[in-house]
Amino acid sequence: MFLTYNRNHNFSPILEHVNATFNQVICSGASVFVIHNDSIVLEEYIGKQSNKSEARIVKEDTQFHVASVRKSYIGFAVAYAVFYGYIDSIDDPVLKYLPELEVSIWQDTTIRHLLTHTHGLHQKEQTVFREYPAGQNWTYRQVGIDALTQIIKRATKKTVSDIIHDLVFTPLSFSESDWYADRHENLMDVILRYEGDTQWKTSESTAGDKMNMYVSTRELAFWGYLHLKQGNIGGKQIVPKEIIQLATSVHSPTAIDQDLPQNGFLWFVKDLPAKKSEIGTGVPKGSYQILGYTGVTLLVIPQENLVAVRMFNSFGSPEGYDYLTDVRSFGDTLMSCLKIQSFNV
Q1: What is the structure's pLDDT at 193?
Q2: Residue 311: which domain range?
Q3: How many structural domains comprise the chain?
Q4: How confident is the model at residue 107 (pLDDT cuts 50, 70, 90)?
Q5: What does R_g of the chain's alpha carbons equal in angstroms?
C-alpha cells in the first residue's frame, strides 16, 4: 500500500504523548503512526525490541505483539461470514453453530452477545459459568472470543487466519502481520511486569484463534486505513464495503446501560455519550478503536479522515498507571492536533 510521507509538525503533541506513556509503562520500545487525509503525517520508532544489551532497535519492520487488537481481525472474519451467508444472523443462538456446548449455560446467548461483550459468561480453568443474563451487562471475557473463532471455523470451513490472508494480507501484500508459532528477529519481546507473570501465555497456533499475533506499526495503520476507506484502496474495492460497515457499526443490545462501552464486531465504537467508553470524550461520533493489553491502540476517525496507531511492548499496567485515562487522552490529543492544524491553515 503506497501512501506519501508528509511530516506534519502539528501532530508533534501525539509523539510527546507516546513518549510520556513510554516512560510510565514497563517496556523497551514503542512507535506511533498517523495517517491524515491520505498522507502519513507522523511515523516514529522508539527504543529497542527487548531489554537485552544486543537487542535490535525498533524499526519500520519491527512487529509488536498486538494482544487483543487481534479481535479486530476476528470481527472482520465474522462480518465476512455474515456477508457471504455462512452465518444467517448475528441474533442466531450460539448453540445453532456449536450444539455440543452445555445448553443450560449457553441457551440464551447469541452471536451478537459474543461480538459486543454482553454474553454474561466467564470461565475458570475448564468450567464455563454464567455471571449475568445475556444482553444485560458488559464484561470483557476471553470465553466469548474462543466461541467466536470456533463458530467462524465451523460455519465457513476456514480459520480466521485463512479468511484474513485471502481477503486482505495477500491482495495488499502484507508481510508483517501474522500469527506465529516460532519467533524471528523482527518480533518484539513482551516485557512482563514481573518474572513469571501467569497471565502471559504463548501459543503455537497459526489459525488466528490465539493471542500470538504480531504486526508492524505501519501494517496495523494500513489495516485501519482499509477500514477508513471501507475496503477501497487506490480505487480498487479490495473487500466489500458492507463487511467493513458491519464490523464498525454499533451492535450492542439496547437493553444494556447506555454508560457502558458500545461495540461493533468487537471494535469499540463511539456513539452515544458513555461514561465507561474507552474512546476520548473529544473524539467524534462514528469513530472506532481497538486496544491491546500490551498498550497497542488503533483508532480510526472517519469524520477527520484519520487513522492513528501507538505501539508498546509492555504487558498490563504497572502500579500508578491509569490505562483508560491514558488511552482516552491519546484520542483527545489527536483531536487537539487537528484543531491546531485548522488554526494554522
Answers
A1: 86
A2: 4-344
A3: 1
A4: very high
A5: 19
Provide the whole-model pTM: 0.96
Residue 196 falls in which region: left (phi positive, over 0), alpha (psi -120 to 50) or beta = left
Question: CATH code at 107?
Answer: 3.40.710.10
Residue 62 C-alpha cell reads as 519491527
